[in-house]
Design a protein that fits this description.
Strand order of the largest sheet: 16-17-15-14-12-18
Strand content: 15-25%
Helix content: 40-55%
Number of strands: 18
Oligomer: single chain
Structural class: alpha+beta
Length: about 575
């Protein structure tokens, strides 16, 4: 195969590469000539559209009246500019960069698309030519808005026989984006020998190419083997007479482009020879690689399964041991997925049972209330009724009824802070009837009454202050309730000036709160409150106790600053109630 195929192929390649430069040159020049024909159509289209646009601007009644008429003050100018934009007065083609009016009136207030005529422009060649022309002219001038040389179509606006303004349409380079040109080509566009666009390295917009010694404008079509304007390579120029103007198009084919084509074709023929070698080797490799590729595919998929990807499918069209192994692996993966799903469902059921138990425990803890207070209060009311037989007893009965109703209506949903404080206040008033002047209390809150809180959080703390703090006092007992903000928390402090606790009892109470121990029957109310807060809000919230024996005790509840529901409201401190029990 090597002698019959490869050697003749190499010989043919050498012969073809020998004549490749001439072939590439001719083909590139033909392509450039075709591009120049296409570009000439676009240039003709620009000339037609440009002349029609500038004539529309020069003959527009609103524009002519504005630049030739008399104006009382600057306000009439500003009114015109705010109500009339150039794109509303005339139709501006998409290929145009700007449409503007040079105004030759010293008292004229310019703005928007109207430009003051300066002395340099007044005495420029194109302005003097357009001033005395009855038809649009073309030239390459600097756009006052873009600040760059642009191809422009100019037409005078006359008041009688005098030109008082000049309508100008400048064209951008965007129209070239619609023209398919090889990226390797360089090109320039000029009118009457003056360049208005170029991407060639030695030619800039505004250059006069007719000054170049190697430019021949006597022919409509020229080709250059040794380059043009200093660009090394090949060049094709095309002169397009349109009216009184001549548009020049120059396309450049740099030597790098020709070399690129030669390299490209060399790669093609070299690739053809390499293909012959590859085809001769494929015959051997085909038989040896089929089996190994199936083994490799199976190995890769087994690695994915080992990494925990059970979505892998084993598809093998063979009928040997490999295909049987793929079937066994597919069955094994299905069984593993079933086991995993069964284990996951069992775990979900266990979590659901645990959650149900926690909810039941939460409700059970929320429903507990110490009846000790109710018995004492009823005894107080009974004694009052027995001794005094007056309206005060009725008032106490009414307060007790409200208090008991709240207890009976209690649910595990949240309540407002105002409601909880009112409930606590009712408790304090009932206790005031029992203890008289021996006890005073004060309630202060800077937290909004709409703040949402779990029910029966504050009252058990106050009850604890009575029972274990100030109940044994002969007089001067005091209970303070404060609800305040602190950073991201809300603190509820219940302070009494009772007998306090020893360090040993305080540590015992803290241990009961930490482990939620209610087995001893002591401090159930406090443990209940602490556990409910942690179950509802999380581990960083709950209850802290500070106590000094003989001085008093402070119990602090730590709650989240942002409530579950409701509004935070006004944060200014407000004293809700301060009274001495009678």
């Amino acid at each position: 195969m090597f002698l019959i195929v490869m050697l003749p192929t190499f010989a043919a390649s050498i012969f073809l590469l020998y004549g490749m430069r001439s072939i590439t040159k001719n083909r590139s020049l033909e392509s450039a000539q075709a591009k120049s024909d296409s570009l000439s159509y676009w240039v003709s289209e620009i000339v037609s559209v440009g002349e029609q646009t500038v004539e529309n601007a020069a003959s527009n009644g609103t524009i002519v009246e504005f630049v030739t008429g008399e104006h009382d003050d600057a306000g009439s100018y500003y009114s015109f500019y705010s109500e009339n934009r150039m794109d509303k007065l005339i139709t501006i083609p998409s290929m145009a960069e700007n449409v503007f009016i040079y105004v030759d009136r010293p008292d004229f207030v310019v703005g928007s698309s109207f430009v003051k005529l300066d002395e340099e422009t007044r005495y420029s060649t194109w302005y003097q030519k357009a001033k005395y022309s009855s038809a649009p002219i073309w030239d390459v001038i600097k756009d006052p808005f873009a600040g760059e040389y642009k191809l422009c179509c100019i037409c005078p606006i006359k008041n009688g026989s005098d030109a008082v303004a000049m309508a100008v349409v400048s064209f951008s380079d965007r129209w070239l984006e619609n023209v398919p040109i090889n990226e390797a080509m360089r090109y320039s566009f000029a009118i009457n020998g003056k360049v208005y666009y170029s991407n060639a390295p030695n030619i800039q917009p505004g250059d006069i190419i007719s000054d170049k010694a190697d430019y021949d404008e006597s022919k409509d079509y020229n080709t250059y083997d040794q380059g043009l304007y200093g660009v090394r390579g090949y060049a094709v120029t095309r002169n397009i007479p349109l009216g009184s103007n001549v548009h020049q198009i120059a396309l450049f084919l740099p030597n790098e482009y020709i070399a690129f084509e030669l390299d490209r074709l060399s790669v093609i023929y070299g690739g053809y020879c390499a293909l012959m070698v590859v085809l001769s080797l494929l015959t051997i490799l085909l038989f040896t690689s089929t089996f190994s590729s199936r083994i490799k595919s199976l190995s890769d998929k087994m690695h994915k399964v080992a990494d925990g990807d059970f979505t892998v499918s084993f598809n093998d069209s063979g009928s040997d041991e490999i295909s049987l192994l793929c079937e066994d692996l597919t069955l094994m993966i299905a069984n593993m997925q079933k086991l995993i799903n069964d284990n996951y469902e069992a775990k979900l059921q266990g979590e659901a049972i645990k959650l149900t138990q926690m909810e039941a425990e939460f409700k059970a803890l929320s429903s507990q209330i110490n009846p000790h207070f109710l018995y004492n209060t009823l005894e107080t009311i009974r004694m009052k009724a027995y001794v005094n037989n007056d309206k005060e007893t009725a008032d106490l009965v009414k307060k007790l009824g409200k208090f008991m109703r709240r207890c009976l209506e209690f649910k595990d949903a949240e309540v407002t802070l105002q409601s909880e404080l009112e409930f606590t206040k009712a408790y304090l008033e009932l206790q005031s009837a029992r203890f008289g002047d021996r006890i005073t209390y004060h309630i202060y809150s800077e937290v909004s009454g709409d703040y949402m809180i779990l029910p029966l959080l504050i009252q058990p703390l106050v009850e604890n202050a009575f029972v274990h703090g100030v109940e044994a006092s002969k007089g001067g007992g005091k209970i303070d309730i404060k609800v305040v903000y602190h950073n991201e928390f809300v603190y509820v402090d219940v302070t009494d000036n009772g007998q306090g606790m020893s360090e040993e009892k305080l540590q015992e109470l803290e241990h009961k709160l930490e482990v939620s121990d209610t087995s001893s029957g002591k401090s159930i109310g406090l443990t209940n409150v602490h556990k409910r807060i942690r179950m509802y809000h999380g581990e960083k919230y709950g209850m802290k106790v500070r106590s000094t024996e003989g001085e008093g005790t402070t119990i602090r509840l730590t709650l989240p600053r942002e409530p579950k529901t409701g509004l935070m409201g006004d944060r200014k401190g407000t004293a809700l109630h301060s009274a001495a029990a009678k």
